[in-house]
Amino acid sequence: MVPQSYYRCWVEVDLNALRDNVAALRRRIGARPRLLAVVKADAYGHGLTQVAGALMQTGVDGFAVANLAEALAVRHLGGPGWPILLFGAALPFEVPKIVEQNITPTISTLEEARLFDAEARRQGRRLGVQVEVDTGMGRVGFWHETASGQIRQVAALPHLHLDALYTHFPVADANLTETRRELDLFLGVAAQLRAAGVALPLLHAANSAALLNLPDATLDMVRPGLLLYGICPVAPRAPEFRPVLSFKARVAFVKDVGAGRTISYGQTFTAAQPMRIATVAAGYADGFSRHLSNHAEVLVGGRRCRIVGRVTMDQIMVDVTGLPHIQSGDEVVFIGRQGDAEVTAGELADWSGTIAWEVLCGITKTARVPRVYYGAAAA
């Protein structure tokens, strides 16, 4: 574990758990499909550079990112050999750098494809691209109804190479009937293209939820995001995956509060009886949402303790009545384990009325909340 430190609020990232999750994914999908590690959004708040560097040692086959800045960070870290897929649409001014750095763009329109083809010709290159088919997300990609004819035109461009065709499922965590329908639509487009003589080296569709819920969607490559970090997007929780991230802070102050006293802004909490209240050195500026006020639970002294009053910018008040040993400097766990107790990112999401993805990505990424890495890959 991480030794005692002077941090007031921090995140711990267990790179051994990350490595074990990759191994668990590989056991689940088998040896043939490729594994594209999704490291967008600063590796879901875990730290892009450190996580991608560790993943390069685990046998993943490439990386997927959301924007050019993330792609360039991975390229700088790993050198020219790593496949890097850029989700979403590229902005026109990004095209020259994408081609120069051999980043694989997602193609969603003929205009976009022609822009990349012209730039690749200008640079004397042939650029690998992937094409997305929209089967129900309503975001980027060619609509499935007209995709075949348009993608044939993309494949004919002389300075582009069609590396893969993919789609993205919007409800793989909630509606398998609809997800199967979307998979069939996608495979139908692929069949039309192959019948027309278009080579499709790779097909991929499976995000984390589809990996768990719909094995037929594994195809030639999978794109785990949340599952890579040990969080299951569907119930029941798959026990072979371990959370990689813990979010912690420290008790800064403890005081006794008499019956009738109010706590925090707006005086939304009034003590019904004498209480012991710990003030914790973290708040919504650190990524602990104000929506958690008055009902979320954290771990203190190995027990679940309730937040009382509103979460403030820099401090949180916690009911530690019945824990007389709690003192300034003691560890408080927002996400993670303490003894036999655990609070998960999913629980924080439920209490906040959001999703685990947002909870992880919302943890502050400044000096207020340093990331502390441990495990073999951190050496």
Fourth-level CATH superfamily of the largest domain = Alanine racemase
Give the oligomeric state of the chains in this entry, treating copies of one chain as homo and distinct chains as hetero.
single chain
Tell me which CATH architecture of the largest domain applies here: Alpha-Beta Barrel
| Number of helical stretches of at least 4 residues | 11
CATH structural class of the largest domain: Alpha Beta
**How can the largest sheet be summarized?**
9 strands, mixed
Measured as a percent range, the helix fraction is: 25-40%
Unreliable spans are none
SSE class: alpha/beta
The termini sit apart by: 14 Å
What is the number of independent domains? 2
Total E-strand runs: 20
Estimate what percentage of residues fall within beta strands: 25-35%
Outline: elongated
Radius of gyration: 24 Å
CATH fold descriptor of the largest domain: TIM Barrel
Q: Residue-averaged pLDDT, rounded? A: 96
Structure description:
There is one protein chain. This protein is an alpha/beta fold. It contains eleven helices and 20 strands. The strands form three sheets. Strands 1, 11, 14, 15, 16, 17, 18, 19 and 20 form a nine-stranded mixed sheet that branches. It has an eight-stranded parallel barrel with strand order 2-3-4-5-6-8-9-10, surrounded by five helices. The longest helix is centred in the middle third of the chain and has 20 residues, at 176-195. 44% of the residues are buried.
